[in-house]
């Protein structure tokens, strides 16, 4: 027991030392020549590993951008300052999954515990971005009586428009999509902001509502005993929470299923993330209920779903397909060796490292036999690129799919496939992910040698098994139904309403 406490103390001290060392590095100014080495390193790794680097940008143009950014580095910079120079170049590649990780301060365990026992400041609101404006659309704790629809004009006397203009250059969708940016920017705005400014205990915001300007001081309050008990209750994993994939942080479920009418004619399935957690059981139970109810219509809602598991969307498609299908085309790699560069030991504890070391030969063997060459190109074997049979409880009625600019990655792949196969009517706005696929799958986490910034590089070209549109855009809906900020504030859902009204119209016609 004595040895246990000694070992534990050593681990904690080593962890604190590592955090201090990392934080010191994030504040250190790095010489221009070393930063230029990082620029060259990043581009070299992208050229070697990324299977479709010049999909949306010509090589000559990208060469010029990397060369140009080096010419702007003429004085020492911190890693964060360097990030704001290099990330816009990475974003110009127009691959939504490809981005440098924002260098930010790390916290000790003690600091994490302290923050966990306090309420956030900016996280107590939900936001909406339109052009260079940031609006509050939900005040979760009714803080300061701030009403939905209020615009945040400035934070600590600095105009929000200045932040938005700078942060927009840091993000990209797949290709020339026009809808993804405001969705992703509203979620990432305060990640960028706190990376720049740090986590403070208070902030002054200037607001505008109905032509009236007001100033509020937000404070990081300590959680009450009631709050802490509520947090513990939210973290408890019941059977329902597991199957519906409960997220304690947002007090919401990743998956929901309900019937929208008393006769069970219309089934509604909402998936906020294809996390795969307990997804097999969720779809099995859901589609068994739909089959038993003899449901005629299904609405699949993948709005604000940034994607996730390819396995899960392939499984979901098996409940919608009328006949055997192939979900994706063979997934291309830059070379057969790239799967071996996925940082197998990344973020492993001492025990995990030891266990992984024992399994490493098996891992190498499996990866070596997971690739193949065809017509001079390297491919990775995937279950989703093989023929899959429809599930025995597959739904045979009419399917509607709700999409918006927040539908990204796996959400776009399944939507593009459903649209191409004419298996669903797609309603809403253009998806944030590309119609013709994306580069993701699994990643090689490269660390720039001098700034120590992480650059995760997707290694697989994943494309739906469809005839490509070659538009370099997202999945276009069959029926365009926009949603405004006022709709959100008033809790109206024009896209879902359109589908319900269309179903009512079809039922009236068939009843004549």
TrEMBL record:
UniProt protein name: Tail specific protease domain-containing protein
Gene Ontology CC entries for this record: outer membrane-bounded periplasmic space
InterPro entries per UniProt: ClpP/crotonase-like_dom_sf, Tail-specific_protease
Transmembrane segments: none
GO biological process, one term: signal transduction
Source organism phylogeny: Bacteria, Pseudomonadati, Bacteroidota, Flavobacteriia, Flavobacteriales
Coiled coil: none
Top-level taxon of the source organism: Bacteria
Domain Tail specific protease: 236-482
GO-annotated molecular function: endopeptidase activity; serine-type peptidase activity
PROSITE patterns linked to this entry: PROKAR_LIPOPROTEIN
């Amino acid at each position: 027991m004595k040895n246990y406490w000694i070992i534990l103390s050593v681990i904690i001290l080593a962890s604190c030392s590592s955090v201090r060392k990392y934080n010191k590095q994030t504040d250190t100014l790095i010489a221009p020549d070393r930063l230029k080495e990082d620029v060259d390193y990043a581009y070299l790794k992208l050229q070697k590993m990324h299977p479709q680097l010049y999909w949306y940008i010509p090589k000559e143009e990208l060469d010029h951008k990397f060369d140009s950014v080096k010419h702007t580095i003429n004085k020492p910079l911190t890693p964060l300052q360097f990030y704001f120079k290099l990330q816009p170049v990475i974003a110009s590649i127009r691959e939504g999954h490809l981005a440098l990780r924002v260098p930010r301060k790390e916290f000790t365990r003690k600091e994490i515990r302290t923050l966990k026992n306090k309420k956030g400041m900016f996280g107590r609101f939900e936001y909406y971005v339109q052009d260079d404006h940031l609006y509050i659309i939900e005040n979760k704790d009714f803080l300061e009586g701030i009403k939905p629809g209020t615009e945040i004009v400035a934070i600590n006397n600095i105009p929000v428009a200045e932040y938005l203009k700078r942060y927009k250059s840091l993000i990209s969708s797949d290709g020339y999509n026009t809808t993804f940016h405001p969705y992703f920017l509203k979620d990432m705005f305060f990640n960028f902001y706190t990376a720049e400014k740090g986590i403070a205990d208070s902030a002054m915001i200037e607001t505008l509502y109905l032509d009236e300007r007001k100033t509020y001081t937000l404070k990081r309050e300590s959680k009450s005993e009631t709050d802490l008990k509520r947090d513990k209750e939210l973290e408890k994993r019941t059977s329902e929470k597991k199957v519906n994939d409960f997220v304690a942080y947002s007090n919401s479920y990743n998956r929901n299923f309900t019937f929208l009418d008393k006769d069970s004619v219309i089934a509604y399935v909402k998936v906020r993330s294809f996390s795969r957690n307990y997804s097999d059981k969720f779809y099995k139970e859901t589609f068994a209920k739909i089959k038993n109810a003899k449901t005629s219509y299904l609405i699949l809602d993948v709005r604000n779903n940034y994607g996730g598991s390819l396995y899960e969307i392939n499984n979901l498609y098996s409940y919608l397909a009328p006949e055997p299908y192939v979900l994706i085309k063979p997934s291309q790699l830059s070379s057969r060796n790239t799967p071996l560069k996925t940082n197998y030991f990344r973020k492993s504890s001492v025990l995990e490292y030891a266990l992984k070391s024992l399994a490493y030969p098996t891992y190498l063997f499996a990866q070596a036999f997971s690739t193949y060459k065809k017509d001079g190109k390297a491919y990775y074997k995937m279950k989703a690129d093989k023929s899959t049979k429809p599930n025995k409880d597959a739904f045979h009625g009419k399917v509607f799919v709700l999409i918006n600019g927040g539908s990204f990655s796996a959400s776009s792949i399944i939507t593009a496939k459903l649209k191409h196969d004419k298996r669903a009517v797609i309603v809403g706005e253009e998806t944030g992910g590309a119609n013709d696929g994306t580069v993701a799958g699994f990643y090689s986490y490269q660390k720039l040698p001098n700034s120590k910034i992480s650059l995760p590089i997707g290694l697989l070209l994943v494309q739906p098994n469809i005839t490509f549109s070659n538009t370099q855009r997202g999945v276009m809906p069959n029926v365009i139904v926009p949603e405004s900020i006022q709709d959100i504030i008033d809790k109206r859902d024009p896209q879902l309403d359109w589908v319900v009204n269309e179903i009512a119209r079809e039922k009236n016609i068939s009843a004549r």
